Amino acid sequence: MFSSLRKLFASEPDPREARRPLWDAVVATARAPHWYAEGQVPDTLDGRFDMISLVMALVLHRIDADPGQGIAGVQLTELFVNDMDGQMRQIGFGDMVVGKQVGRMMSALGGRLGAYRAADGSDELRAALIRNLWRGNAPDEAGLAHVMAEVAALRAALAAMPVSDLVTAGRLPGAAT
Fold first, then answer.
1. pLDDT by residue (tens digit) across 6-16?
2. pLDDT for 13-40, tens place per residue?
3. Secondary structure of the chain: what % helix, strand, coil (to 5)?
4. Contact residues for 123 (Cβ-Cβ < 8 A; gap 6+)
5. How far apart are CA 120 and CA 44, in angstroms?
6. Which of 51, 65, 63, 67 is nearest to 22 (CA)?
7. Separation between Cα atoms, residue 177 and residue 174, nearest integer Å
8. What is the DSSP string of 110-134?
9. Can you spell out the DSSP letters for the chain?
């Protein structure tokens, strides 16, 4: 019984918090103005979620390249869930709605993890970006070209960074802000 109480009241730090700087970097990268200005991604709640999901997918793909860092990917995903939950509650969603919405968000992230494995510059990536960032309504060619180029730049910069550095750095390399 004592060990149960100690666990309940323990002040041990949450191990996920070690990934907080990386999560903050994912959000900051996704909120960079160029995505919304030059890239023409809608600057709406949905558009912001879509951009966070895109950057998150690229980061998780990189983390997956090092099986020894798998827990970092799990922790980062848990921070994503907690933040999305908190954001919805702050907007005013109730308990009954939040759980369903978080489930939908996780499903969307899962789908994007697969879709964004498509090669840079490919028709598959182009289609995935149009479907997910612009809800099927392609922006003009300049906006799409900007996003495609920035995705490729971010992916290349992530590939050049050791995964161990990525999960501890608290910043993302490369993409223009």
1. 555 656 788 88
2. 888 888 999 999 999 999 999 999 999 9
3. 75, 0, 25
4. none
5. 26
6. 63
7. 9
8. HHHHHHTTSPTT-HHHHHHHHHHHS
9. -HHHHHHHH--PPPGGGGGHHHHHHHHHHHT-HHHHTTS----SHHHHHHHHHHHHHHHHHHHHT-GGGHHHHHHHHHHHHHHHHHHHHHHT--HHHHHHHHHHHHHHHHHHHHHTTSPTT-HHHHHHHHHHHSTT----HHHHHHHHHHHHHHHHHHHHS-HHHHHHHSS--S---
Which pTM value belongs to this model? 0.85
Q: Helix 95-115 to helix 123-133 angle, to the nearest 10 degrees?
A: 160
Tell me how far apart the alpha carbons of residues 73 and 60 are, in angstroms, rounded to a whole number: 6
How far apart (Å, rounded) are the C-alpha atoms in residues 112 and 116? 6
